[in-house]
Design a protein that fits this description.
- The protein is an all-beta fold.
- It has one domain: Jelly Rolls (Sandwich).
- Strands 1, 2, 3, 4, 5, 6, 7 and 8 form an 8-stranded antiparallel beta sheet that branches.
- β2 and β3 form a beta hairpin.
- The two termini are 18 Å apart.
- InterPro entries: Bacilysin_H2HPP_isomerase, Cupin_2, KdgF, RmlC-like_jellyroll, RmlC_Cupin_sf.
- This is Cupin domain-containing protein.
């Protein structure tokens, strides 16, 4: 069994860097770094997602609602809910997904 894996950082969009930190079929941890003004496009997926703000400030759009979050804030996005964000102050989000997002591998 491999305990530590190394995953490359990729840019899924302008001003955004994504890096898988750990994964198993049941769970995945992913780091997203955002520059000011960068956006996470509105989308949905079948995975349950938990988001934690490690640094920076973000405006999140979740199922038609909008709210601002900052360092230390966390929340859960249910399966199938439309969501996205805009970076207000450069920072990092730590997202966990259950089950793993195979499209990130």
């Amino acid at each position: 069994m491999t305990i530590l894996k190394s995953f490359p950082a990729i840019s899924p969009g302008p001003g955004v860097t994504r890096q898988v930190l750990a994964d198993s079929p049941e769970l995945m941890l992913v780091s997203f770094r955002f520059d000011v003004g960068a956006k996470g496009a509105l989308h949905s997926h079948p995975h349950v997602q938990s988001t934690h703000v490690a640094s920076g400030r973000f405006r999140f759009h979740l199922d038609g609602a909008e709210f601002d979050i900052g360092p230390g804030d966390s929340f859960v996005i249910p399966s199938g809910v439309i969501h996205g964000c805009e970076c207000l102050e450069a920072g990092r989000l730590l997202d966990s997904f259950a089950p793993r997002r195979d499209d990130f591998l």
